[in-house]
Amino acid sequence: MRIWFDTEFIEDGRTIDLLSIGLVREDGATYYAEPSGVDVARASEWVKANVLPLLSGTVTSRAAIAADIREFAGDKPEFWAYYGAYDWVALCQLYGTMMELPKGWPMFCRDLIQLAKAKGIEKLPEQLGGKHNALNDALWTRDAYLWAVGPHWRETT
């Protein structure tokens, strides 16, 4: 099952602290969560201005989010993100170390920007609104992926 995802987070060059995560499966099902226990005082001014106002405020324990995502993703997911290095770390940290990922899960995620560059795509479709909301960004990642692998991308590049 292909799954596109995005996260919002606080990072300081040493740690990545998950603020929210959004996922969308290829069957259209979606999942969104915000973990409890995040020290938002550590957020940069940019995160305070552009991400925190978009959070729902409904928080869930990290353990519950990890269990929900395990069920949502299934046994052999294929994860996709956009510039997803930090997103992947934030998702994996829900399970502890990389070695503690659920059985059958890959130890990497695929990246839409790498796919686009490999195909010679210079510009992906613009995201119209909803930026910096993890679920909206995951939905855009799915839509941009489908555009990039479809036959019509050559018409606009």
Structure, described:
This protein has 157 residues and is α/β, with parallel strands linked by helices. It has a single domain, classed as Nucleotidyltransferase, domain 5, CATH 3.30.420. It has 5 helices and 5 strands, in the order E-E-E-H-H-E-H-E-H-H. It has a 5-stranded mixed beta sheet. The longest helix is centred in the last third of the chain and has 16 residues, at 134-149. The model has no long low-confidence stretch (mean pLDDT 94).
Q: Could you provide a short overview of the structure?
A:
The protein is α/β, with parallel strands linked by helices and 157 residues long. It has a single domain (2-155), classed as Nucleotidyltransferase, domain 5, CATH 3.30.420.
| Structural class category | alpha/beta
What is the spatial order of strands in the main beta sheet? Answer: 3-2-1-4-5
Helix content: 25-40%
Q: Give the CA-based shape.
A: globular
Q: Largest sheet, if any?
A: 5 strands, mixed
Q: Indicate the proportion of strand residues.
A: 15-25%
CATH superfamily: Ribonuclease H-like superfamily/Ribonuclease H
SSE map:
Elements: E1 2-11, E2 16-25, E3 30-33, H1 45-50, H2 62-73, E4 78-81, H3 85-93, E5 110-111, H4 112-118, H5 134-149
Parallel strand pairs: 1-4, 4-5
Antiparallel strand pairs: 1-2, 2-3
Summary keywords:
single chain; 157 residues; alpha/beta; Nucleotidyltransferase, domain 5; five-stranded mixed beta sheet; 5 helices; 5 strands; globular
